[in-house]
Design a protein that fits this description.
With 504 residues, the protein is mostly helical. The chain has 20 helices and 5 strands. The chain is globular.
């Protein structure tokens, strides 16, 4: 006789609240007249995130709890990652609310009469709000999922809305649609790899849960070929989502083609969710098989750090440069996966928050730099921007210095913590590779800062638009947080260390 699964709805409430807000947004799209949709959708999205965060705060002291049989576990690292994703979503939606970045009618062919008519009528793309919330719900489930079916469902729920949103750019429509198509096709392949890897690991262990996989590895009761192949295929799917080499080729194209607010949200929140799931899988499910996968992941980490830093030097587009920067940061974070200790886990939690806040702020600045045709991302046209808009250039430089790991910024503390954890675990070669790639990265960050402040503006230079109050709030919060976490990192670092544990 089948029994109904026991679900703890209080623990699942943050995800359910976000899903409920997303469904309410769909109903608003269907039944509310267009003139009221934008403000109502924004209010629903922000309210849903605030309520979800409040509920998450309530359950923060629950310790380790099973929320849905063997499918979902609530523990310190999971709660911390969910909170970080909600913060990124809140800040991201503030920037997304500037509808000037989105096509008025995504279904219209670029340059067609239908698109011109939509532009003239003043249509706004408000579907982006429920799509963002659906993505957030998947991102919140991904780091706390503890069986392969739930992991795969969460992966698809977070990915599918992002595929759509990448193609919604108002300008350079063909580039945006190309980015969406590339992201979708490569994402589908990576999902297939992930699913095939999960199937092989199920064949090896006879269990879909991470704990069942651990028990099977300890018992050595399965075919080791299935185990090794399963780890390989599963890792491909995960490494694609974090943008690690050699599965990174989608990153620069999608970052460049997607609407900039979506790029910022995706770069911060998706990386947090993907690394949250990756850490849980390797720390919990594959801990007993670390001899099999550590050398490969370590090699990927080194290559990712170096390729990301070196490739960024030659970029002439700000968004592509930030994309390769994110690839290098994925390599830094992979060192924590290899380190496999509590210090590394706590350092990763801190790093993801510090990096995510700076990333949202940096892409928020990019949305402000425009000419008569709209947003400008050509680095050569940013020359002398510091003389025209010193405040905007200074804030952008702050984020770049944080990415570079300069002292008194949150990025420095994050890198120091991760490299310290790698050193403690005996992976000195990862520390050497990380420091070397960071030194390379400093070059192109400082080069851009010098172009902003110490070069004369050209005749083809750009201007900075006055940001909306919502964009101003988002950029201000991220800039202040970047400074505070650099000057007084213990405010967050101690919290991250306290939450650095998984339910086993």
């Amino acid at each position: 006789m089948l029994t109904a699964p026991k679900l703890d709805y209080a623990l699942l409430a943050p995800i359910l609240i976000i899903l409920g807000a997303a469904l309410l947004g769909v109903l608003v799209e269907a039944f509310v007249k267009q003139s009221l949709r934008a403000r109502l959708q924004l209010a629903i999205a922000l309210t849903g995130i605030i309520i979800a965060f409040e509920q998450l705060y309530r359950i923060r002291n629950q310790g380790t709890s099973i929320a849905a049989v063997t499918s979902v576990s609530i523990d310190g690292a999971g709660i911390f990652m969910q909170g970080a994703i909600l913060i990124f979503a809140f800040l991201g939606i503030l920037i997304i609310a500037d509808h000037d970045h989105f096509a008025p009618q995504a279904s219209a062919l670029p340059g067609s009469a239908e698109e011109v008519s939509a532009l003239e009528s003043g249509k706004q793309q408000t579907e982006v709000f429920p799509l963002t919330l659906f993505a957030v719900s998947g991102m919140m489930l991904f780091p706390i999922a503890t069986d392969f079916i739930t992991l795969f469902v969460a992966l698809e729920v977070l990915s599918l809305p992002l595929y759509l949103m990448a193609g919604l750019s108002r300008r350079r429509r063909l580039l945006s649609q190309e980015a969406a198509l590339k992201y979708f096709l490569l994402g589908a392949y990576s999902s297939a790899f992930f699913l095939f890897g999960a199937a092989l690991l199920y064949g090896y262990s006879g269990s879909l849960s991470l704990n069942g996989l651990t028990d099977a590895i300890h018992g050595s009761g399965g075919n080791d070929v299935f185990l090794l192949l399963g780890i390989v295929f599963l890792s491909v799917g995960l490494l694609f989502k974090v943008g690690a080499v050699p599965f990174h080729n989608w990153t620069p194209d999608v970052y460049q083609g997607a609407p900039t607010p979506i790029t910022g949200f995706m770069a911060a929140a998706t990386k947090a969710a993907a690394f949250g799931a990756t850490l849980r899988i390797f720390y919990v499910g594959l801990d007993a098989a670390q001899i099999s996968w550590k050398p490969a992941i370590a090699a990927v980490a080194v290559i990712t750090m170096l390729v990301g830093a070196i490739a960024a030097i030659s970029q002439r587009d700000v968004k592509r440069m930030l994309a390769y920067s994110s690839i290098a940061h994925a390599g830094f974070l992979l060192t924590a996966v290899v380190s496999l200790n509590k210090s590394a886990l706590g350092a990763t939690l801190f790093y993801l928050v510090a990096y995510g806040l700076a990333t949202i702020g940096a892409f928020g600045i990019v949305t402000l730099v425009r000419d008569s045709a709209g947003e400008v991302t050509d680095i050569n046209r940013w020359v002398g921007l510091g003389k025209k808009s010193p405040l905007v250039a200074s804030v952008f430089s702050l984020f770049l210095l944080s990415f570079a790991g300069i002292p008194l910024t949150s990025g420095f503390v994050g890198k120091f913590a991760i490299f310290s954890a790698a050193y403690e675990s005996g992976n000195i070669y990862l520390v050497v590779a990380g420091v070397l790639s960071s030194a390379i990265a400093v070059f192109f960050y400082l080069r851009l800062i010098l172009m902003l402040f110490f070069a004369d503006a050209t005749n083809d230079s750009v201007s900075v638009v006055i940001p909306s109050i919502l964009t101003r709030i988002a950029i201000s919060i991220t800039a202040i947080a970047t400074i505070i976490l650099g000057v007084a990192p213990s405010l967050l670092f101690n919290v991250a260390q306290n939450f650095a544990y998984f339910l086993r």
